[in-house]
Amino acid sequence: MAINCTVNKKKVSLDIDPNTPLLWALRDHLSLLGTKYGCGIAQCGACTVWVNGEPMRSCVLPISAVSNARITTIEGLDPAGKHPVQVAWDELDVPQCGYCQAGQIMTAAGLLKKNPHPTDQEIVDGMSGNICRCGTYHRIQEAVKLASKKIKK
Fold this sequence. Notes:
Order of helices and strands: EEHEEEHHHHH
CATH class of the largest domain: Alpha Beta
């Protein structure tokens, strides 16, 4: 049985085991490699994508759960890299190793979509589920603040 969904505004049909995690469907079957495998237990946030506009951990989400859903990966956030979060990340040179950054960006963009001008504490709280093994938390928080200033009111 094929799972039909929309990934980065393109309709796709995946004929794979319905228990396959969305992460592996994206990476192995659609060659979208921006979303990373970090922990496999939805604790680190490296695999964060949007499902119907909401940030979700793709490493534990079975493909069957996203039938007919709209999925946005880091590649689809803004293919030109001009989303305010992507611009802020670049301007502040946020990544160190970069491994967690797709998940960080997708989480930050989701936070700003719901709350375009968060307080410092709301940023800390909103980003707290994403782990950065390099410890760039201060730069991440500063980039979220900068991105919020770039969002049209």
